[in-house]
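Write out structure tokens for DNA-directed DNA polymerase.
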Amino acid sequence: VGVMVDAKQLNEQSQEIGLSLKQIEKEAHSEAGGAFNLDSPKQLQEILYDNLKLPILGKTPKGQPSTAEAVLQALAEDYELPNLVLKYRSLSKLKSTYTDKLPAQINRTTGRIHTSYHQAITATGRLSSSKPNLQNIPIRTPQGRRIRQAFIAPPGKKLIAADYSQIELRIMAHLSGDKGLRRAFAEDQDIHKATAAEIFGTKQTKVQDTQRRSAKAINFGLIYGMSAFGLARQLNIKR
């Protein structure tokens, strides 16, 4: 069947992101004291560690100072340039993967994008899609949410979203017999808030959004076999 997208809206977003990238690039060059290619890990490595003498928090397998995302996130807490590089990478990925690429994947005959869905590919048994992957459209940033707005319905029609309410966790509660989980579902509580309240020692009414997101990562991490290392990396905490 395929899905309709507003190519004009995506093209406009692509132009806006392009302007933002140029502004971030300008600010990064100012912080670095000169021009360099933000897309070049080697040049960034030289700027951060040779020129600016920033602390080396991680190394590559070859023993070179790392410019990986996790390292930059740690450096960004104290230095502006790594923060700008992270913003640049995030916007650059949105532009190259979505706002630039999706309009080009519209079928000229149907006027829609046609993805391929796979029922038996993932180890967890979850549905996946490819060419393009329409199950991974960003939602965490304002720019990412705008990309989702470009998915539209034909004239006179509407898009409807339907989903089981936390079905995996309900099955886990049933199979495990966990009293806390079963009580939370029986009382129609927000299960992620309930978990966050337990973890952070607070009332559900005082649980913050960041705490709920952490609890959600823990809840689903338990179901899908996430390791301690994987959870620590996702929550950006020490193992």
